[in-house]
């Protein structure tokens, strides 16, 4: 049997646009001789729909689109993810389901059994779990149809499982011969490799073919890498779709052969591709075409600008330099050189007079008080206001340029450099920022060398350096990783790293106290196992002193 895996980029709630993608890819699959074409999890409505599924009209529209597609492709079998009404009179009103469209109607419905409630997932909030699942037959084969998390509980792979049930094992025990998994599995660095290893373990363990189609594209903070695949009963890769692009691949279950398309490899390449895709989809799906980036001459704003150009085109990126009396001539020169290299619109709007006007206005209130971080923040807030003015005038979206290290320790200014609609590199630690800058320049040298090599500085006071306030970034980022991503205590981090205990506790204190800032930050693009935002829900008003 020839099965097509249709790796599409749906937009949440765009039923018309999503249905058009179904038509395009289903027609292509049919022209290539496919008997069954499989689309990702909740691809009719887009994933994650969150509380939109509580709207009865949303569920009704999903059903209407399914019925239309079934009628239009009566000569082709299609599997599509959609939200369906729950049959139970108690609990949640909807389920995360998959429909088999065959012979002009909805012929079979399977609902998701394992609903994740960790990290960025909160499906128990919106969906009811399936009480049971069953097989369907096509082309003489009994198919075990599973939905994303249903396949993530194999006891032969995980040392500690999250659920008692194993839907794959239950369906294969009932006579399933092929595992089909429809997914919306979000990306983080290392996730494609983990996903492949886990599915290969299932194939080898049960000696059956495993086919998985994954959503691609960005929706809010999440990026989906696609990387749909098919595995032989021996766990060998026999088909794979492109990463970070829409794609269609065919799999022949008789010969165990299929299309294998190029993949990205390496941390820098995959992380960069995720940031570009996440930026492009966030901006466009929010209805914008242009973005504004404040260019300081530093590495963070340079990397953000390059990502924006690759995502949206140079004609859609506006760079603004906003020097003060503390800005070095090199910073202005580096910002201009970057803009020239990228071919983007570039303007200089000095803030000295605005900053002085703030100080004059506040002189009476601040009398007899020395200048401190207050005056530094006034500069950042003046810049934030200017960026928003440019964005308003040109109907653009401001991209903030702060990295994960800064956001983690609160080295950022509310209503200043945190102003914007998307925090592009807020899940990129400073050490990875440097690696990504080198990666960018290895393809085409656009980031000025000085932006990479000069000591990082906010330039909010004379001769200021980040190292005046923070440990070296290689130390800071390691502590951040162990505390935020790996949930280690101060004493455990000291034992693992050998770092000074006082430095570790200083950094942890900054992380904990900065929670109120992070919860007011623009959404960021998730590329790590634990990003700030929806995947890390810590209280603001709390005192937790853990050893």
Explained architecture:
With 547 residues, the chain is α/β, with parallel strands linked by helices. It has helices spanning 15-31, 56-72, 123-126, 167-173, 191-206, 267-285, 299-312, 329-342, 352-362, 373-393, 404-409, 430-443, 449-453, 473-485, 490-497, 501-513, 515-518, and strands at 2-7, 36-38, 77-85, 94-102, 105-111, 136-138, 141-147, 178-183, 210-214, 216-219, 222-225, 229-231, 237-240, 247-252, 257-258, 290-294, 317-321, 345-348, 396-400, 422-423. A seven-stranded mixed β-sheet has the order 5-4-3-2-1-14-15. A six-stranded mixed β-sheet has the order 6-7-8-9-12-13, with helices on one face. It has a five-stranded parallel β-sheet with strand order 18-17-16-19-20, sandwiched between helices. It is elongated and about 85 Å long. The chain starts with a strand and ends in a 29-residue tail after the last helix. The mean pLDDT is 94.
Strand order of the largest sheet: 5-4-3-2-1-14-15
Q: Main sheet?
A: 7 strands, mixed
Radius of gyration: 25 Å
Poorly predicted sequence stretches spanning 5 or more consecutive residues: none
Mean pLDDT: 94
Number of strands: 20
Count up the helices: 17
How much of the polypeptide forms β-strand, as a percent range?
Answer: 15-25%
Distance from N terminus to C terminus (CA atoms, Å) equals 58 Å
Helix content: 25-40%
Anisotropy-based shape: elongated
Classify the oligomer.
single chain
Q: Which structural class matches the secondary elements? A: alpha/beta
Please describe the topology of this protein.
Blueprint lengths: L1 E6 L7 H17 L4 E3 L17 H17 L4 E9 L8 E9 L2 E7 L11 H4 L9 E3 L2 E7 L19 H7 L4 E6 L7 H16 L3 E5 L1 E4 L2 E4 L3 E3 L5 E4 L6 E6 L4 E2 L8 H19 L4 E5 L4 H14 L4 E5 L7 H14 L2 E4 L3 H11 L10 H21 L2 E5 L3 H6 L12 E2 L6 H14 L5 H5 L19 H13 L4 H8 L3 H13 L1 H4 L29
Parallel strand pairs: 1-2, 2-3, 7-8, 8-9, 16-17, 16-19, 17-18, 19-20
Antiparallel strand pairs: 1-14, 3-4, 4-5, 6-7, 9-12, 10-11, 12-13, 14-15
Helix pairs in contact: 1-2, 6-7, 6-12, 7-12, 9-10, 14-16, 15-16
């Amino acid at each position: 049997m020839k099965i097509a895996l249709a790796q599409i980029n749906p937009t949440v709630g765009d039923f018309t646009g999503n249905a058009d993608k179904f038509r395009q890819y289903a027609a292509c699959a049919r022209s290539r001789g496919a008997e069954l074409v499989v689309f990702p999890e909740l691809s009719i409505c887009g994933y994650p729909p969150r509380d939109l599924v509580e709207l009865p009209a949303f569920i009704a529209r999903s059903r209407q689109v399914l019925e239309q597609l079934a009628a239009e492709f009566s000569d082709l079998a299609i599997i599509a993810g959609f939200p369906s009404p729950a049959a139970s009179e108690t609990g949640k009103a909807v389920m995360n389901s998959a429909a088999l469209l065959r012979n002009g109607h909805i012929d079979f419905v399977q609902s998701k059994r394992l609903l994740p409630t960790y990290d960025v997932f909160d499906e128990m909030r919106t969906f009811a779990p399936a009480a049971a699942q069953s097989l369907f037959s096509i082309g003489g084969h009994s198919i075990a149809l599973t939905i994303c998390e249903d396949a993530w509980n194999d006891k032969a792979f995980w040392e500690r499982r999250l659920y008692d049930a194993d839907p794959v094992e239950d369906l294969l025990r009932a006579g399933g011969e092929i595992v089909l998994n429809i997914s919306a599995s979000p990306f983080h660095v290392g996730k494609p490799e983990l996903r492949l290893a886990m599915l290969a373990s299932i194939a080898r363990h049960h000696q059956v073919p495993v086919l998985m189609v994954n959503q691609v594209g960005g929706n809010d903070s999440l990026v989906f890498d696609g990387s749909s695949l098919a595995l032989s009963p021996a766990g060998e890769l026999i088909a794979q779709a492109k990463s970070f692009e829409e794609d269609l691949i065919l799999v022949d279950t008789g010969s165990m052969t299929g299309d294998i398309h190029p993949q990205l490899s390496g941390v820098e390449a995959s992380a960069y591709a995720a940031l570009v895709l996440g930026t492009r989809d966030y901006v466009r799906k929010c209805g914008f075409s242009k973005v504004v980036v404040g260019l300081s001459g530093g590495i963070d704003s340079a990397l953000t600008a390059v990502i924006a150009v690759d995502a949206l085109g140079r004609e859609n990126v506006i760079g603004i330099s906003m020097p003060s009396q503390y800005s070095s001539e090199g910073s202005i020169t580096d910002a201009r050189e970057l803009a020239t290299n990228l071919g983007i619109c570039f303007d200089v709007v000095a803030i000295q007079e605005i900053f002085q006007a703030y100080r004059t206005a506040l002189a009476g209130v601040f009398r007899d008080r020395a200048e401190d971080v207050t005056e530094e923040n006034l500069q950042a807030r003046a810049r934030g206001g200017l960026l928003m003015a440019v964005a308003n005038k040109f109907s653009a979206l401001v991209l903030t340029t702060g990295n994960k290290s800064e956001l983690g320790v609160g080295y950022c200014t509310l209503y200043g450099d945190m102003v914007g609609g998307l925090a592009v590199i807020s899940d990129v630690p400073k050490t990875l920022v440097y690696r990504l800058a080198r990666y960018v320049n290895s393809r085409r040298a656009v980031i000025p060398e000085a932006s990479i090599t000069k000591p990082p500085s906010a330039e909010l006071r004379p001769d200021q350096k980040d190292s005046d306030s923070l440990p070296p970034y290689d130390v800071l980022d390691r502590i951040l990783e162990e505390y935020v991503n790996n949930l280690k205590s101060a004493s455990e981090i000291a034992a693992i790293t050998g770092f000074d205990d006082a430095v570790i506790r200083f950094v942890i204190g900054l992380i904990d106290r900065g929670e109120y800032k992070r919860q007011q930050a623009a959404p960021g693009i998730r590329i790590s196992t634990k990003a700030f935002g929806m995947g890390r829900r810590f209280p603001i008003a709390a005192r937790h002193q853990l050893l």
